[in-house]
Amino acid sequence: MPVSTQSTQPDPSAGAAVKAADRAHVFHSWSAQGLIDPLAVAGAEGSYFWDYDGNRYLDFSCQLVNTNIGHQHPKVVAAIQEQAARMCTIAPGFAVDVRSEAARLIAERTPGDLDKIFFTNGGAEAVENAVRMARLHTGRPKVLSAYRSYHGATAAAINLTGDPRRWPSDTASAGVVHFWAPFLYRSPFHAESEEQECQRALAHLEDTIAFEGPGTIAAIVLETVPGTAGIMVPPPGYLPGVREICDRYGIVFVLDEVMAGFGRTGRWFAAEHFGVTPDLLTFAKGVNSGYVPLGGVAISAEIAATFDRRPYPGGLTYSGHPLACASAVATINAMAEEGVVENAARIGEDVIGPGLRTLAERHPSVGEVRGLGVFWAVELVRNRATREPLVPYNAAGDANAPMAAFAAACKKAGLWPFVNMNRTHVVPPCTVTEAEVKEGLAALDEALTVADAHTV
């Protein structure tokens, strides 16, 4: 990637002005507005971004795990510029070359017969529409999802979500039932092996269905590999087992690949690792690395046929927006031409995985490392033997001090981490180099000594 034309020279006064305008007028998501201190970012390129004081950070968060192709990829930037010069926008009811091409490229890579693409502005809207399609297709009201999950912040998506961000918005009337998905390290089933965890998780799901009434359940929604909730790679046989259960009861199987898709796990879609094809697949984030907002639902032939003569009651003004679709076409083509998905697989297997396991041997605060491709979690604990988390579940304030100190140490070392609960996630761009990963692992090694100080 060429050297950035953006200025990287420190300009603290410009940074102060940006910060002042932000605090005066911007209302930030998921935040107590008076308690935050957002970093003023001056620019970004590849695996790095920098502030106005001259501090550069290796982006091990991929922002919100979405800049899969890195910051400012020149082919994607050029595609957006070219499309803007040709046609900035058009309503979704028209046939447009760039929209059709984006849909074709996505459909070519989705598993099975998921060949129709409904475009949205992001992942939450994709989940909203997948649930609506499932309910209309089956005529049933209920949807099942896992406790350790995140599906978005819109009405249905936040109720599907399992983590505490759901709590303030949970209506308790959304037709959502939560269940436990497999996670051997913190098994709710007292399993001692991946095989046991798989069998017991599937039995638990069957019991949940039986007690809820199979004929009332429209869909089961699962992240193929849960993201924010902890990157718990499902054991062999689990997702095929869910597929079989759905087939037996006429339940729509929805895989949420908003975070796991488009190279993140070392495959175009994480479903490829497990040999399963859902009825609906949601995507966003990596489809164009978030350069322009875009998401969507890949739809099976059977569900698409439901709406051949029956209007689908849903739509968005910006569905399949030309600038977003142009960026998706450029992203997918660049990923294919440059071997980006293959790079993610190799880096995960040869560099990130072995590197994290080496860190685990040295640091008593590391309870477990797990992941695929460039999608890894490091579970931090106070006690390896008891697996007590480094901070309590959903900790805040003083209770979260150990994780806050760890995150601060990462940033001091030039690494921008993705931290949630008692975990740090290693989620660099799919384009990350071996040298960049080793730089990040060295920073993690240094920061983990801070976490080690809180172990017993």
Descriptive key words:
disordered N terminus, single chain, alpha/beta, globular, 16% strand
Give an overview in words.
The chain is of the alpha/beta class and 456 residues long. The chain has helices at residues 12-25, 62-65, 74-86, 97-109, 123-138, 155-160, 194-212, 238-249, 271-274, 301-306, 322-337, 340-362, 401-412, 434-452, and strands at 41-45, 48-51, 56-59, 116-120, 142-146, 176-179, 217-223, 252-256, 280-283, 295-299, 366-372, 375-383, 388-389, 415-416, 418-420, 423-426. It contains 14 helices and 16 strands. The strands form three sheets. The chain has a seven-stranded mixed beta sheet, with helices on both faces. Strands 11, 12, 13, 15 and 16 form a five-stranded antiparallel beta sheet that branches. Strand 5, helix 6 and strand 6 (176-179) form a beta-alpha-beta unit. The N and C termini lie far apart (45 Å). The model is unreliable at 1-5 (pLDDT under 50).
Helix content estimate: 25-40%
| Strands ordered across the widest β-sheet | 4-10-9-8-7-5-6
Instruction: Give the number of helices.
Output: 14
**N/C terminus separation:** 45 Å
How would the blueprint of this fold be written?
Elements: H1 12-25, E1 41-45, E2 48-51, E3 56-59, H2 62-65, H3 74-86, H4 97-109, E4 116-120, H5 123-138, E5 142-146, H6 155-160, E6 176-179, H7 194-212, E7 217-223, H8 238-249, E8 252-256, H9 271-274, E9 280-283, E10 295-299, H10 301-306, H11 322-337, H12 340-362, E11 366-372, E12 375-383, E13 388-389, H13 401-412, E14 415-416, E15 418-420, E16 423-426, H14 434-452
Parallel strand pairs: 3-14, 5-6, 5-7, 7-8, 8-9
Antiparallel strand pairs: 1-2, 2-3, 4-10, 9-10, 11-12, 12-13, 12-16, 15-16
Helix pairs in contact: 3-11, 4-11, 7-8, 12-14, 13-14
